[in-house]
Write a structure and sequence with these properties.
This protein has 285 residues and is an alpha/beta fold. The chain is 44% helix and 13% strand. The chain has twelve helices and eight strands. The termini are far apart. It binds 3-methyl-2-oxobutanoic acid.
Amino acid sequence: MSRNKVTILSLQEKKQAGEPITMLTAYDYPTGLLVDRAGIDIILVGDSLAMVVLGMENTVSVTVDEMLHHCKAVARGAKNPLLVGDLPFMSYQVDPREAVRNAGRFLKEGGMDVVKLEGGCEVARTVKAIVDAGIPVMGHIGLTPQTISKLGGYRVQGKDVASAKALIDDAHALEEAGAFSLILEAIPSPLAELISEGLRIPTIGIGAGPHCDGQVLVTHDLIGLFDRFVPKFVKQYADTFSSTVEALEQYRDDVLEGAFPAAEHGYGMSEEALETLIAELGQDS
Ligand code: KIV
């Protein structure tokens, strides 16, 4: 199926038309290819790759260079979705000039179309600086995994009136600063609905209920390829971990039993060449 490249403008049109936006993560060439083939609008090369691909404890340690390595691979596989590069922890917090420089690398070296960063009012100045430099920014509020120590763990945000109001302020500050879209992670569904209704830009929810303008999941959660835990908000559509282990065990058994490789997996040579080879080897010895 041929389709057009997804743009910020086409996402905005979807919000206006009330058409849901689809987004998934990808971390390498094959997942980029698969997510593109599935007709998903947006691919996020998320810093979740620290955990689901690199096996780290959390997302804090992953570096800009590691992220760029994965961005380049995804960009080779995915041609149609809008490509979002996730700015890792401490690549944008120190000062806006450094943030602009790092964001620029995601476009120039990583092949991304836009960048994403976590935080609310406190990063609005940085978002504006990046946008002013010509780089579109997606915001991310609610449960922000890069500041998990400060939040006290992976827990739902905005459950009481004060924290809900703070998230609404964050959302408006980011829109005001020029963000083209916002991720809302792990917040109550009615709050996500209020935020989505109050913004001109599209919201993409993860654990934020059905009333966001779009939905995102970590692809490895969705296809069952992450072995540690499955968050409550994930719907698993496949058990890739188990089916892959089954295939690998089958291969092991086939090799042990001599069932692989079979004749069709090998290369032949002409009888004449074989006879000549054996004769010449006999003369040499
Ligand atoms: O890194 C990531 O995968 C994310 C999603 C959870 C939105 O930020």
